[in-house]
Write a structure and sequence with these properties.
This protein has 241 residues and is α/β, with parallel strands linked by helices. Helix content is 32%, strand content 17%. Helix 1 (9-26) crosses helix 2 (38-54). Bound molecules: 2-amino-2-deoxy-6-O-phosphono-alpha-D-glucopyranose.
Length: 241
């Protein structure tokens, strides 16, 4: 694992965006795996700024996101589809049909998991997968104990994950209890992985990722078996490493 230290959130976002823009420019047909959460928000703002100022084009780019809450329709401001449209896609020249997220309001959720996994397979490979990390080491919504062989599936969210994400919702009881997530094996199929972390709340998780053994109780440790992983983390997130 290659670790790129950053001074703070802004510097982390800048370094990650720079790396992504270079790859998009040299491979304008690439498939990007994208993530939600507060961590990648600054990267998306930089991608938008670069698109407007330098004209980097996303016309032929395909995106696949990691996860979506079950029960939230795409127009719900807390759905990940809404987050991606309003925070990135609507500001680029990307074709909406080429942006993919699991459908959290699908009638048949198990069938939706199969459709999404097939879609990832049909795209051949994700060229670059962006990841955040949960405080308990979750990637996407793969909670501790998820097999490293898992494919797209339904998860029951841990209370700690619901609490960590409750800040976006009116009240705790509005935070969904379940989500659809790409599995760990689906994530590991990506050619390259870029994991971002910012702030002291992520310091323990980053230490465990860097120094710990691969272990299903700590989902991010699956990345240890991947040959092309870069972590960009700020000083606070690296403070215990
Ligand atoms: C959510 C997302 C993850 C994300 C994590 C951390 O649970 N499903 O993909 O990495 O939160 O979020 P944040 O970046 O807001 O700390």
């Amino acid at each position: 694992m290659n670790i790129i230290p950053a001074a703070d959130y802004q510097d982390m976002s800048h370094k990650a965006a720079h790396l992504m823009i270079e790859k998009i420019r040299s491979n304008p047909d690439m498939t990007l795996g994208l993530a939600t959460g507060s961590t990648p928000k600054g990267v998306y703002d930089e991608l938008i700024k670069d698109h407007m100022e330098n004209g980097t084009s996303y016309k032929r780019i395909t995106t696949v996101n990691l996860d979506e809450y079950i029960g939230l329709p795409p127009f719900d401001p807390n759905s990940y589809r809404y987050f991606m449209n309003s925070g990135l896609f609507n500001h680029l020249d990307i074709q909406q049909v080429n942006t993919h997220l699991p459908k959290g309001d699908a009638d048949d959720i198990n069938q939706e998991c199969q459709r999404y996994e097939q879609l990832i397979k049909d795209l051949v490979d994700i060229d670059l997968q962006l990841l955040g990390i949960g405080q308990n080491g979750h990637i996407g919504f793969n909670e501790p104990g998820t097999p490293f062989t898992s494919r797209t599936h339904v998860v029951k969210l841990e209370e700690s994950t619901r609490k960590a994400n409750a800040r976006f919702f009116e009240s705790m009881d509005k935070v969904p209890t379940h989500a659809i997530t790409m599995g760990i094996a689906s994530i590991l199929d990506s050619r390259e992985i870029l994991l971002l972390a910012s702030g002291s709340a992520k310091a323990e998780a980053i230490t465990q990722l860097v120094h710990g053994e691969a272990n299903e109780q700590f989902p991010a440790s699956a990345l240890k078996v991947h040959s092309n992983v870069t972590i960009i983390a700020d000083e606070a997130a690296l403070s215990l490493v």
